[in-house]
Every structure is written in C-alpha cells, then in structure tokens.
Amino acid sequence: xxxxxxxxxxxxxxxxxxxxxxxxxxxxxxxxxxxxxxxxxxxxxxxxxxxxxxxxxxxxxxxxxxxxxxxxxxxxxxxxxxxxxxxxxxxxxxxxxxxxxxxxxxxxxxxxxxxxxxxxxxxxxxxxxxxxxxxxxxxxxxxxxxxxxxxxxxxxxxxxxxxxxxxxxxxxxxxxxxxxxxxxxxxxxxxxxxxxxxxxxxxxxxxxxxxxxxxxxxxxxxxxxxxxxxxxxxxxxxxxxxxxxxxxxxxxxxxxxxxxxxxxxxxxxxxxxxxxxxxxxxxxxxxxxxxxxxxxxxxxxxxxxxxxxxxxxxxxxxxxxxxxxxxxxxxxxxxxxxxxxxxxxxxxxxxxxxxxxxxxxxxxxxxxxxxxxxxxxxxxxxxxxxxxxxxxxxxxxxxxxxxxxxxxxx
Amino acid sequence: xxxxxxxxxxxxxxxxxxxxxxxxxxxxxxxxxxxxxxxxxxxxxxxxxxxxxxxxxxxxxxxxxxxxxxxxxxxxxxxxxxxxxxxxxxxxxxxxxxxxxxxxxxxxxxxxxxxxxxxxxxxxxxxxxxxxxxxxxxxxxxxxxxxxxxxxxxxxxxxxxxxxxxxxxxxxxxxxxxxxxxxxxxxxxxxxxxxxxxxxxxxxxxxxxxxxxxxxxxxxxxxxxxxxxxxxxxxxxxxxxxxxxxxxxxxxxxxxxxxxxxxxxxxxxxxxxxxxxxxxxxxxxxxxxxxxxxxxxxxxxxxxxxxxxxxxxxxxxxxxxxxxxxxxxxxxxxxxxxxxxxxxxxxxxxxxxxxxxxxxxxxxxxxxxxxxxxxxxxxxxxxxxxxxxxxxxxxxxxxxxxxxxxxxxx
Lengths: 410, 410
Known about the structure:
Chain A is an alpha+beta fold. The first copy, chain A, is built from 15 helices and 19 strands.
C-alpha cells in the first residue's frame, strides 16, 4: 500500500504498552497511597485551560513559545496546561467560601510543553501535585517536605540516595535588600545568578560584579531565620534528616514567595534535580479576594522512573491474568469458556486462547507472559471433571475439581 | 481588582472537586476491575495524535469540524483524539510481530470533540475501551459483550435495567445485496435510515422509497446467520439473557464490519443508548500488512454516571482521611504532629488542623467532611499518654494509648 498510515505516535509523546503501563500504574498508585496517608484528597481538571491563566504569572513569552496554545472556533485562546499550580489555585479560589481549610489536595495531571524536537525531550509528562491551602506555618512547610520524603522512601529509596535542599525566598529578599542594600534590578540579577550557581565556575566573579563588592559566601551560607529553622526542626522531629539549607535553591516560578525546596539524586550517574516545590501565598489573589496561603510540589513520572531505574528500585510487576486456561482440543473450547467464567466469578483474573492454536504454543505463550498459573482443559478433564493446576514458576501440579482449584489459587 | 482572572474552567470541560473525583475513581476502578478479571491488560497513549490518523476512516469533514485539530510549529497537524480505536489499532499494528494474540487490551482515555457550545454538551469525556485482537469467532464476540454486561452488573444494575441489542453488519450486507438486490447507493441509504429507525415515524415510507417496493419488516426482524446465532448461544451459556437481535443497530463508525451491539437503558426517565461497540476486522490494514481481526467497545464516564444516578446505584463514597486529630490547645500542636506521624506509619490516612482554630470548629469540620474517627490531642492527653478515639457515626468512645487506638482503627 503506497499511502499506508504511519504507526508512529505524534512527535515527543509516548505510547504505553502494557509493560510500560504497569510501571506507570505502580508509580501513580504509590504516589496516591502516600498522599492519602497524609489525608490528601484527589482532584482533577481538564488539560484544556484558558490561555489567560498562564499569562499573568508565567509570562507572555513562555505561553507563546513553550506551550501548546491555539484559538478555538469561538475565538477563545486555549492552552494545553503546562503545569497544575494555576489550575488548583483557580479551583480553590472559585470555592473559597465552601471549602474547609486547611485543604490538602493532590492530583496526577498530564502536562504539556512545546519543546523543539530533540532526542529524549518529551512534550508531555504526568506529574504528582500535592498542595496545602490555608495554612502558613512550619507544620505545613514540614508536612509537604515530609510527604515528598516519604514518597521516595515508599519506593524503597534510602536516605543517602537523595538530599532535600531548602531555602526561604523571604530570607534572601531580606539579605539582599537590608544587609546588602541592593536595588530591585540587582536583586533580580542575583536570583538569576543563584539559580545557575551549581552549574558555573564564575559565581564569585559574577556576584561581585552585580553587588559591586565581593559576596561573603560564608555569610550567605550561614543565613537562617526563625521560620526556616522551625521547619528544619519539625522535619528533624519527623525523622527526616537528609535535609540541608542551600541558598542557591530559588526555583524558577515567579509565584514562589516563601520556603522553596528541591530534591537531588545523590547517585554519581544521575546526579541531578528530581523535583521541587515551594510556598506561593499570593497566587490566589490573581482571582480577586484575599490571598490563601499555599505550599506544594510537583513530581514528574519521567524523572521518577529514571530515579527508580538508576537505583534499581523497580519491582517485577505482574501484567495480565493470574490464570491461563490451556485448551487441549477444539472440542474443549466450549467447556473452557464456561470454566473461565466460573473461576472469574471468584474475582480471579483469567483468560484463555480461543484461537485453536496448538497446546505447546499456548504453554509457550503463558510462559513468555509470566502467567503464574495454567489449567489444561481437554476431553479427559471435561469427562472426569478433574483438572490439573500448574504453578508455572515452581512447576508444582495439583489435581482437583474447579471448585478445589479455585481455593488453591486464592 | 479590575483585571482579575476568571475562576471558570475552559468552556465545555469539567473541574473534578474531591467529591466528583471520588465518583470518577469509583467508576474507573470498577471498569478496571472487571476488565482485568477477563484478563485484559491496560495500555495508554497520549491525547495528541497526528491528524492523518482520523482522516482515513473518520472522514475529512469530521476531522475539520468536530475535532480539536491544529498545526504545531513544526507544521505538523495534530488532533486531540476524539476516540481511542484508531490509536489502539496503530499501537497493535506497530508491534504485530512481537505481541501475543489473542490480545485483550483495555484503556481509560480522555477524549475530545469540538462541540458548538450548548447547555450540557461537553467537549471532553473519559471512556473505557476494551478490545480483543487476533480472534474472529463467536467466543471473542460473546466475551466482549459479556464483559460489558458484567461491568453494569458489578455496578449493581439488574438485568431489566438495560437491554443489549445486537446485529451483524455482514447479515445486513447480504440481505441488501443478495435478497433485495440493492446497489451500493441504496445500501448506503438503507444503513443511514436504519440508524434513525427508532427516532422516526416514517421508516416504512422512506424504506419503500429507497428500495422501490415495501420493505418486509418481519423478514428483516427475522434475519439470522450462523455466527450471530452462535454468539447469542454463547451469551446464553454465560447467563447473559437480556440480549436481543435488532436490525436497526448499525453504529456510525465506518470501520465496523461484523457484529455490532448497543446497550440501552430501559428506565422510562433515561431511555437512551448507553454505549456500544462492534467488530472491525480491517482497520489495521490502514497501517499496511494483513488485517488483524478485532472487536471492542467504548463506555463513557458521563453516560455511566447518569445511568448510576438514574438507577440510584452510586454508593456513599469516602472522601478524605479515616482519622482527624483535634488539637485542643496551641501547646498540643507539636504533639499532634508526632501522633499523626505515628498513626500514619501504620498506613492509616490521617490529618489534623494545624491552624490553631477552636476545638468546636474542628469537630464541626470533621463532621461536615464525614471523617469516620477523631482523636482529641490536648495538654491532659499529652501528659497522661492516654487518648480518646471517637467513632463519629456511632458516637462510641474508646480510651487508650496511641498504640491501642491504632489497633481499634485497623
């Protein structure tokens, strides 16, 4: 066929075949489980958002160049959401009068960004978002960071596999404006420079140039205020010890205005930022009304999977049914059809091959797919009512009626 | 604020606040549970697909007018997928050599369509998609229909709450071409007319006009072939009895070419089509290579929720944590913070209000949110190490150490 269709997905997005989907679900389920243990409630929203939502805080340039934004036929500008924080702020602001604060909310949204096509750069990912609204104290700060910590622990990570770096934008603001007496432009430049600190060798020179004298790096590293120290103390009480103050953690988003944090992988092969978050007490004012204090973080599936693979933390995940019936003769298909329904009625995932393929091919397929149990259904079995259940990994076999075998499988 | 942002979502899409999200998850979990009991494996793909994928079978007009289709900056035409079948056919065709057939796959994708804005017309929904690839026999046909049946049963529906109407496009094709000797144009018109049969009063007149003589409706209703009757017999064996042959079931999609079915709500208030599906043995040939026979269906979340509400089948769903700590004095917050972590360590979802609000307001909030248990943490409790666990629905109270209360909650 000359004009046959391509089987490739759209550039920069992923297909999830069952083996990848099993990993995806394992990650999502673990995220949900730990978030719910902290009393977080799940919400969601559409991937389509009015483009205005991102203009105010994300900046015109990013909306135009780094997001999927288009005009619908009603001439509305619509964006495939690049991050979840503006959405959750919108939803909370909309029902601020009915909602019970403090609010603990989580979501696992699909996010999109327009990337120039490059090897390995994806245009979509999924991200766990956890936020606490309506509480501005060290307990809320520490809870959000402890939640992030316990998610990594739940995946099997050890304390020395990662480090949590925290900072307080308020602390830096005060240091720049009061101690160093910098003006707004200088402050802005210092933030940009700090954000690049770990990647450049010329930090000291560039800092001197901005502030007009050498920056005292010991003074910068020794900064501390009451709130940050209360937060670190609370984390210590909870047993979260791989935390350190790092003044270069400023995070890119405009809306952060308090505690910010970033978690880094400590392994030499994957030594990079895993995810981060921070406090954004004033974002909801975009929608009118008083501000609702908030703190949260976002953790992406692609980065998470890389981390789990780097540290060999991915378990062997089951895909497919627990039991496969092997149909030994064409005459036995009818019986297999009924046996399957009987076993399935006990909430045991079970399938069979109704294509009439050879028995040895059916066994080979069950082995290839790591099916835990098989039961042969042939003329003898149908006549006698006695079947054989085989454990595919141990090779152990048990004979009995279907009712007896159901007991064995459960 | 003059230029404050709207809190409305984009036109035609939904926000899922926790109470709606709980219903959504209940529907998704039930779908997944029954599909997996039949050995179906979960897959997924991005909502972004190349627009070409829909042109071939869906038609240029639908792609242009009823989908979200836009050009990206690489001048690629991209569509927010309006249905999942082309995607799953693409994925199966891409790995036809490695995959084990028969393949049972399911997915719960988000789908989009461009609708003129009208009250109650949504532009997105979620849909369970179940498909069997690589098997063209009555067992595969019956299994797909039985799966759809058992999903409704799992939600608590009774046999007389819905009816499953089946037809075979092959049967109609033969009747039109051989028995009635219609040409292609007449056949096409008859399909269009049958699709509208239940909605119009002029079916007989219009049919006569197309075929040039009165249509024998008894003959039409009495049609049957070996395959359809084998499928109905297999369904009977599985105990699926609310099934009937209905020649007006043709389904809109171009790619159906065998058994088609549609499930109708029988309640007088909601007497309408719930969902449907059918056999599409030739869709994969669009991607080159031999055809891979396939049958499947799609079941939407909006329709499903309407059905559950109409038949009062939605259970009372838990939202939020199982336990709420009530902090009786500001001095007790530190202790509450640690007690929470101790209980949470036993996989019990638990939260507390660290805002310093009055105790009676905290109790009122726990009651409003239907939290099952509360534990008061005050100065006396901290001093004595003895706490009171209150069951919020029965009013029953138990005193003990935190370790003892954990046993009570589990």
